[in-house]
Design a protein that fits this description.
about 15% strand; Rossmann fold; 19 strands; 2 domains; alpha/beta; binds adenosine-5'-diphosphate; binds ligand NAX; UDP-N-acetylmuramoyl-L-alanine:D-glutamate ligase
Length: about 500
């Protein structure tokens, strides 16, 4: 058994995530090679052991078990707890029907009937010391209804520590969609033990909210075939390598990468609305991440451009016109769009045609969404040029011509579709950011929290991406580009963790 979150080693290699179909195929293959019920026995024992390791003082334990194999795992766990920890009071609230039990779960139910367990007919009157949630698992692919919904509502409201078996009941294994007509409740006192495989839904969509702070994994002895993963889970890696930067005595500012941030509409250029801060946030982040020279080109008249950035005088400010009149678009990694406003639309063609290393964010994405033709991006891909798109769910919906709910309903699918349609590496931002690239298995980033939900944190990410791409060896295979982008998103997700105060950080606190 291994702990997955919080990530025990920051530089752990990516882990495969398997969807419902691949998990079921693996389960069938493994079950066929073992004596009957072995897998369920292993699963139930793993649950019982983790329950007692996690909540060693729990005396009154309630196992909420459904009528499928997830419930079967719960029944085995209840039987083992009653047998191996006899001083505990173990009660089962079972939601199944004997005539509809699958084979393994029937066996587990028969074992449980013979064990020293209390069988509840309704929700317990008082919260126990520990709940084991084995109501619904991998099998859930439609809205929860009937008695299961009533049980799920009790579970969501119950203040007791809860260990979820395989998946939190109500969560879709593939997508992280929440299937219940009862709002998912975040809970610090919730943990999940994923069995056989790790599922994508645990790490994106509603997964991070409902799975709890602590995610564990037991493969039950399974060895997935290569090429069967639906996605890879990425932990924060070692970039930027500050020790290596310091030890590189032969380096100079010209060897550390140039970044041009193109955005930040000045008030006179955008109906009195100033968004220069967004470009400065991105530019400051690029500088902090180690880029040698960072230029911030603002949209508006040259004489309105402030002479310097008081917070980061090392930044070089200029107008977008001046930047486009220079060789910076060809030479630097260009981050376009942060706070650019509608004027970005007039610059998009030039940017697409001239910038070999390009990150498009915010208003550059909105400008892109207004033109249905992906041909300029296909041409960039054919030339081996890099294009990274960083939409949040609403920008993704505009690019896909759909709505935010549809994007969020299946974030992996949305990111994959965007990457294929726009011939680009796509970062679909939000809880469990997805990094998709044409023809490659997507990556899901495990870091990040609600502390990033503040205006400007996306600009910081765009700047970090600019810095990362500016030193990535050129040309790079698509796999390396996708991995570098995912590592950067993972690093961005860890930034709030360094914040020492009780109040949450602002975007400019993330990388001052
Ligand atoms: N068979 C085995 O040996 C193993 C089983 N495992 C467990 O098996 C689980 C998968 O089992 P199943 O395929 O039986 O699926 P589940 O137990 O997740 O779900 C099926 C049950 O839930 C009910 N149900 C489904 N959707 C519902 C809805 N929307 N509203 C109300 N009730 C609903 C069904 O009527 C059925 O009783 C995994 O999550 C895992 O816990 C794993 O531990 C691996 C080993
Ligand atoms: N609840 C959350 N959990 C994890 N990451 C989040 C959360 N909310 C926001 N983020 C991250 O913060 C950033 C916000 O980006 P964006 O919405 O573009 O902000 P802005 O445009 O204000 O800069 C993204 O990287 C996103 O993934």
């Amino acid at each position: 058994m291994q702990r997955i979150l919080p990530c025990p080693t920051p530089s752990a290699p990516p882990r495969p995530l398997h969807d419902r179909l691949a998990s079921r195929q693996l389960e069938q293959r493994l079950a066929a090679s073992l004596p009957p019920h072995t897998l369920m026995q292993r699963a139930g024992l793993a649950v019982a052991r983790l329950a007692m390791a996690w909540q060693p003082h729990a005396q009154r334990i309630v196992v909420l078990a459904g009528g499928g194999n997830n419930g079967g795992d719960g029944l085995v766990a209840a039987t083992r707890l009653a047998r191996d920890w006899p001083q505990r009071d173990v009660a089962v609230w079972w939601q199944g029907a004997p005539e509809r039990l699958p084979d393994d779960a029937r066996w587990a139910w028969q074992q449980a009937r013979a064990a020293n367990l209390t069988w509840l007919q309704a929700a317990p009157e008082h919260p126990p010391d520990l709940v084991i949630d084995a109501l619904l698992g991998l099998g859930l692919d439609r809205p929860v209804r009937g008695t299961a919904l009533a049980a799920l509502r009790w579970l969501q409201a119950c203040p007791a520590p809860t260990l979820c078996v395989d998946l939190p009941s109500g969560l879709d294994a593939n997508t992280g969609h929440w299937w219940a007509d009862a709002p998912p409740q975040p809970a610090a006192q919730r943990a999940t033990l994923s069995l056989l495989t790790l599922k994508p839904g645990l790490f994106t969509g509603h997964g991070r909210v409902v799975a709890g702070a602590s995610i564990w994994f037991d493969d039950l002895g399974a060895e997935p075939e290569p090429g069967t993963a639906a996605a890879w889970l990425v932990a924060p890696g070692g970039w930027p390598d500050t020790a290596a930067l310091r030890a590189d005595h032969a380096s100079h500012k010209g060897s550390r990468g140039d970044v041009l941030v193109l955005g930040g509409a000045l008030p006179h250029a955008h109906a009195g609305i100033g968004m220069g801060g967004a470009a400065l946030l991105a530019a400051r982040a690029a500088l902090r991440a180690g880029a040698g020279r960072v230029y911030a080109a603002l949209l508006g008249d040259a004489e309105q451009v402030p002479p310097w950035d008081m917070g980061q005088p090392a930044l070089m400010l200029r107008s977008a016109t001046a930047a486009l009149d220079s060789d910076l678009p060809e030479r630097a990694t260009v981050v376009a769009g942060c706070g650019g406003g509608p004027a970005m639309a007039t610059l998009l063609d030039a940017v697409l045609a001239r910038c070999p290393r390009l990150v498009l964010d915010a208003d550059a994405l909105n400008a892109l969404a207004q033109r249905p033709d992906p041909e300029p991006l296909a041409a960039r891909q054919a030339r081996g040029w890099w294009t990274v798109l960083t939409p949040h769910p609403l920008e993704a919906a505009r690019l896909l011509r759909t709505d935010t709910a549809t994007v969020q309903r299946d974030r992996l699918a949305a990111a994959r579709t965007l990457a294929e349609r726009w011939h680009a590496v796509v970062v679909l931002k939000g809880s469990g950011s997805v990094v998709a690239a044409p023809g490659l298995t997507p990556r899901i980033v495990a870091s990040g929290s609600g502390w990033l939900a503040t205006a400007g944190s996306g600009d910081t990410l765009a700047g970090l991406l600019g810095a990362r791409l500016s030193t990535l060896p050129w040309p790079a295979p698509p796999e390396d580009l996708q991995a570098a982008v995912a590592d950067t998103v993972a690093l961005h997700g860890t930034l709030p963790e360094h914040w020492p105060h009780r109040w949450p950080p602002t975007a400019s606190d993330l990388l001052p």
